[in-house]
Amino acid sequence: MKQTGALAKRRDLRERGGFSPWMWLLGVVPLIAGCAVGEYRMPYQDGILVLVAQDHETHSSPEASMYDMVAQNATPAEVVAAAAGVVRFIEDGNQEPTDDNNYVWIEHPQYSYQCDGEVCTEWTMYIHFAKDSVTGDAGLSVGDMVDAGDFLGFESNVGFSNPDGFVHLHWHVAALPPGVEPTFNGYYLDYVVDTEEHPELIPVVCVQGGPDVLEKNEIDTAAGCGGNRLLSSSSVQRGVDQVRGQLRHRSPIALALGRISEVSEEAVAIAQADPELLSRTVELLLKLRPAFEDLRHLGAARITTTDLESVRTLLLEYQTRGSARMHAALQPLHQTLANPAGAEGLGLVVWDPFDVLD
Predict the structure, then answer these.
(1) Beta-bridge partner residues of 91
(2) Is-contact 275 282, C-beta < 8 A?
(3) CATH number at 2-245
(4) Percentages of the chain per state (helix, strand, coil), in multiples of 5
């Protein structure tokens, strides 16, 4: 089954040090793990067979997690948005023969988090569109909001599309701080040179049959994620407002998650050394995952008094077992959650289920 394959690939990434179970469950700072928080569909119209020509390990840059995809049963193939977002950059005026790429950048503010002291947002990049197919055929402009599956333009070979200019889509996901722009052929080259870092992430991609971590030479049938698994453009607007608020005020929950992110790798090591602690941690994080999602996307969430106390118990256990750095990172959060006002300041609405029964 496709889902089983995806889980096996994720497990393999984790064992090779590129994936953290703590970060997967929390979805706080995937930059540490190298995996995207967002859930993305295959960026082609439903039903199109897609060959993964290059994957996150084989693309031209060994440090960058990027993908080249080729439609197998559609000419020209319709490229679609992989998730809801805001169109930030468009270039589709180039035509072969040229080395200048046509491209679209989409920001996904609903997938934002603290990274290196800033609020990073996940973006998807789509390159090599046919001339005028973005602004003309799709009728898109910078600033437009799109939903997952919305038509962006046609797959082509315009620009620097080695080898031999073959028709394909270059696609990847990156976590970027504010102010990053295309500086070379649809790529943020200046940012990479200045920071000496590659911000690309390994995404889980929905295809027919379930979510998958894409690998070279596999052929998948493009499909959406189904149901409400991907947020709509209305949720994107909430994400935009949230990111702006975090940039202005460094919200308490953003700061708290930032503190957790600083010691996440040590926390994983502590949990893995104690199967019983790992089991309790995973069980609680899975139970509270909807609340974490609400905190990230809406800035508020409900939590029972029992679950809140379980969180405080785990925080205390980790800070007791961990280093001085772990203690310094977790103790303020543990103390903040000790009273209702502190929890409310983090966006948590604490409630007692037994009160409902009275």
Answers:
(1) 103
(2) no
(3) 2.70.70.10
(4) 40, 25, 35
> What is the per-residue burial (b if ≥16 Cβ within 10 Å, else e) of 23-47?
bbbbbbbbbbbbbbbbbbbbbbbee
Q: 């029964």: which residue's tokens?
A: 357
Residue range 345-357, pLDDT digits in tens: 887 888 876 654 4
Who's near 179: CB < 8 A, 6+ residues apart? none
Beta bridge partner(s), residue 122: 108, 175
- Supply 104's token pair: 């679209």
**One-letter amino acid for residue 32 of the chain:** I
CA distances from 256 to 153, 309, 357 (A): 40, 17, 33
Eight-class DSSP state of 109: E
Query: Which residues does 158 contact at the CB level (< 8 Å), separation at least 6?
Result: 94, 95, 96, 98, 100, 101, 102, 128, 129, 130, 131
**Torsion angle defined by CA atoms of residues 23, 24, 25 and 26, in that order, rounded to the nearest 10 degrees:** 40
Evaluate if pTM is beyond 0.90. Answer: no
Domain locations along the chain: 2-245, 251-357
Question: Which CA distances in Å does 169 have to 63, 238, 307, 325?
Answer: 20, 30, 45, 44
- Chain segment 109-167, per-residue pLDDT in tens: 878 776 666 778 899 999 999 999 999 999 999 999 999 999 999 999 998 876 566 89
Measured between alpha carbons, how far is 129 from 138 in angstroms, rounded to an integer? 11
Q: How far is it, in rounded angstroms, from Cα 46 to Cα 93? A: 27
Longest CA span, the chain: 75
